[in-house]
């Protein structure tokens, strides 16, 4: 999979891509992430990418010309399955969407900054708009990193145990059940006996029950 990120401050994504599973995915050739500095397409000697908004109001807006030039240049090099804008007013991101996007070959993520991007860019180029939650960050770089991580770990060969992702929270519409490791007894708290039984069917039934109970208490909206 190839993911291109267009950002005003691409350095904000570098750390998240240089460690753990995302580094492993790239080292194994399973994921390619290209960081593009929008200022390379900026206007004038100062490579300007933002301007005041029409109608007044606080906050700068990312301009049409740099974004259009950048997007069209990247499109001339490869065909993108999706051009995604990271924005608080987008569709709420969830595991089902991560699963869907992990099946694509080429994605472009536009990380907004300042007050946002000119609406005409959204109308002309963007195929999907994603929000990672009902709050506002300084820019779309961190949300883009979240999307890349959630997609990258689903790619075959990234996780050492590929069944691990299948048991994550939200994969089956439920939160994940409790998990335990050694020691068997810690500060007087014992591991549930069923997990020590070696009886696969009983263990699976216990995990399903606990997943349903936890979801009912913590996220009853998922059961709806």
Q: Could you characterize what this model shows?
A:
It is a single chain. The protein is of the alpha/beta class. It has two domains: 151 residues, SPOUT methyltransferase, trefoil knot domain (Alpha/beta knot, 3-Layer(aba) Sandwich); 55 residues, Orthogonal Bundle (Trp Operon Repressor, Chain A), CATH 1.10.1270. It is 33% helix and 19% strand. It contains eight helices and nine strands. The strands form three sheets. Strands 2-1-6-5-7 form a five-stranded parallel sheet, covered by helices on one side. Strands 3-4 form a two-stranded antiparallel ribbon. The longest helix has 19 residues. It is elongated. It starts with a strand and ends with a helix. 27% of the residues are buried. The mean pLDDT is 94.
Number of domains: 2
CATH class descriptor of the largest domain: Alpha Beta
CATH overall fold name of the largest domain: Alpha/beta knot
Per DSSP E runs of 2 or more residues, the count of β-strands stands at: 9
Biggest β-sheet description = 5 strands, parallel
């Amino acid at each position: 999979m190839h993911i291109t990120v267009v950002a005003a401050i691409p350095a904000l994504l570098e750390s998240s891509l240089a460690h753990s599973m995302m580094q492993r995915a790239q080292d194994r050739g399973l994921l390619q992430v290209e960081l593009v500095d929008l200022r390379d397409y900026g206007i004038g000697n100062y490579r300007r990418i933002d301007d005041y908004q029409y109608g007044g109001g606080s906050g700068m807006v990312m301009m049409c010309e740099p974004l259009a030039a950048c997007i069209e240049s990247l499109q001339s090099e490869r065909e993108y399955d999706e051009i995604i804008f990271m924005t608080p007013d987008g569709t709420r991101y969830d595991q089902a969407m991560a699963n869907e996007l992990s099946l694509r070959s080429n994605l472009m993520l536009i990380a907004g900054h300042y007050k946002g991007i000119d609406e005409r860019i959204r109308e002309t180029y963007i195929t999907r708009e994603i929000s990672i939650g009902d709050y506002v960050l300084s820019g779309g770089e961190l949300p883009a990193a979240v999307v890349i991580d959630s997609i990258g770990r689903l790619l075959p060969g990234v996780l050492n145990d590929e069944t691990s992702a299948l048991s994550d929270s939200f994969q089956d519409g439920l939160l994940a059940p409790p998990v335990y490791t050694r020691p068997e007894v810690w500060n007087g708290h014992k591991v549930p006996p069923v997990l020590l039984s070696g009886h696969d069917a009983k263990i699976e039934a216990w995990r399903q029950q606990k997943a349903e109970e936890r979801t009912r208490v913590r996220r009853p909206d998922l059961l709806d």
